[in-house]
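Weekly puzzle thread! Below is a chain. First person to post its structure in token form gets bragging rights.
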Amino acid sequence: MAVPVALTIAGSDSSGGAGIQADLKTFAALGVYGASVITALTAQNTRGVFGIHPVPPAFVTAQVDAVFDDLEVRAVKIGMVAELSIIEAIAAALSRWKPEHVVLDPVMVASSGDRLLSAEAVESLRKDLIPRASLLTPNLPEAAALLNESVASDEATIRSQGRRLLALGARAVLIKGGHAQGAESIDYLFAGGSVTVLPAPRLATTNTHGTGCSLSSAIAAGLAKGEPLETAVRGAKTWISAAIAAADRLGVGHGHGPIHHFHRFD
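Winning reply:
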């Protein structure tokens, strides 16, 4: 049997810890063949983002078409989309190729606090991409930004925001609790009319660069392997927790260092 294939559509991270590079490392670590469509080049490292160079939308389209024309893509992960015209190009390509699984990570702000999505593109993200997603994976600030609300600080608000994000058209929503406080980092999976609460111990490390990218691509890897959604989410959470726990062993960079994608092979 051929190896399952997953495609990441995202920005490139020149320091290798997030974006396309993190996604491809994740796919490889989880036994999935990774293809990529680059939406933007970034000049960045563990300390911040110093420049963004969007790829022309027509060339984003050309990359997507080249991959789907030849590879049997079982799942797509979408990360940084950079600007309105690129969102429109991706939406049109998804309409043409109709992949079974689309994991949309609405990347708006980097871990360093740098804005990665232009303000005018947010409405297009809501209108054109979220309805095509089988899973939307915002963190707490992203969930609030998508709804034009304050960041949720209690479970009741998180549940309310999750239901309203579902109403935007995604088949399922995973609100990630990494930005909250407390001994546990609690994620909430909204799918099939129910809410699944997914707690994990909060790990004491500053080396978390690329965590969101890697979690969404780990879920896409599970879906590409044929796992049910909840199984893919639970497996991705277990893997990402171990990758964060092992991050300090890498010693890469002087800011928020990357997680350890290949911790299983140490």
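Puzzle host: Confirmed. Bonus trivia for everyone else. Strands lie at 5-13, 33-45, 48-54, 73-78, 102-104, 135-136, 172-175, 184-191, 194-201.
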